[in-house]
Amino acid sequence: MQTGSLTVVGTGIQLVGQLTLAAQAHIVQADKLLFAVADPVTAKWLRSLNPTAEAIPYNTDRTRRKETYREMVDRILSEVRQGLNVCAVFYGHPGVFADPAHGAIRQAHQEGFRAQMLPGISAEDCLFADIGLDPGVNGCQSFEATDFLIRRRKFDRTSALILWQIATIGNLGFYQEGGHIHGLTVLAEVLQTHYSPEWQAIVYEAAVYYPVCEPVIQRVPLSKLPEAKVTPVSTLYVPPFGPAPLDREMMARLGLGARG
Ligand SMILES: C[S@@+](CC[C@H](N)C(=O)[O-])C[C@H]1O[C@@H](n2cnc3c(N)ncnc32)[C@H](O)[C@@H]1O
Q1: d(CA 105, ligand 1 centre) in Å
Q2: Is the pLDDT of residue 156 over 90?
Q3: What pLDDT score was predicted for residue 258?
C-alpha cells in the first residue's frame, strides 16, 4: 500500500449543521483539505477548520461536465500522490450525484492508495424531512432527469418519483439561465402521459442557510411545470398516483389475511 490516502466526505446540504462528527474529524486532521462546495460561507468555514484548505478548480468553460470532473479527479490525486492524507469535501452526500467524488476514490484505489467515502446528508434526505415523505410507505424511485428521459426508465406511478438535475435536462455542459425551459417542457409532456396534466408535483429546494431561510416547496401542476421557477439546485418530486393494487394471491401465500 502506498503512503498517502484519500477520504471523501460531505458537508450535508445545510450550512454547518449537517456535517457528521466523523467528517469533521477528517476535515480537521487532513494534511491537505480540498473542497468543492456550492456556497462561499461553507468555503470560509472549511478554511477556518483546516488552514491547508483549497478549492478544487471547477472549470465551467468546458463544453462537457465530464471533462471538468476529470480535471477535479486529477487535482485531488495530485495531492494524494505526494504521500499526503487528503480529505476531499463535497456538498450534500459526497456519493450522491457526485461523479468526481466516486472517480477520485476509484483512481486512488487503482493507484494503490487507501481511499474511503463517508456518507453525508443529501438533498433527498432533506426532501424526506421537509415534504414529509416516508419512502417506506409507497416506495421511492430516484433518477437523474436526463437519464430518466433518454433511457425511458421504467417506473411505477403509484410510488414516489424523485427527479434530480431538472435544470440541466439534455445539457451535458453547465447550467445557463433560462436554458432549462426546453428540457423541462419535454419532461412535463412525458410525465403527463403517465399522470394527468393537473397532477401536482413539487419543485423542491432544501434551505442551505437554515434557519435563516426556509426550504422552497413549489407546488405545480405537471402542465405548468415549464413555467415553474427552477434553479440548478431544484429537484422534482412527483407524489404517488393512487394506491398500488394488492396481489391477493401473494397475500394468501404470505399468510396475510383480508385485514392485512
Ligand atoms: C450534482 S448534484 C449534487 C447532489 C448532492 N451531492 C446531494 O447529496 O444532494 C446536484 C443536484 O442535486 C439536487 N440538489 C442540490 N442541492 C439541492 C437543494 N438545496 N435542494 C434540492 N435539491 C438539491 C438538485 O437536483 C441538483 O440538480
Answers
A1: 20
A2: yes
A3: 58
Q: Which of 75, 91, 204, 237 is catalytic?
A: 91
Residue nearest to atom 14 of ligand 1 (CA): 233
For the segment 152-172, the average pLDDT, to the nearest whole number, is 97
Mean confidence (pLDDT) of the chain: 95
**What is the Å distance from ligand 1's center to 78 Cα?**
27
pTM (two decimals): 0.95
Alpha helices, H only, the chain:
21-29, 40-49, 65-80, 99-110, 123-131, 135-138, 145-150, 181-194, 248-253
**From 58, 62, 64, 65, the catalytic residue:** 65
Rounded to whole angstroms, how far apart are CA atoms 105 and 86? 11
All domains of the chain, ordered by start, with CATH?
A: 5-117 (3.40.1010.10), 123-238 (3.30.950.10)
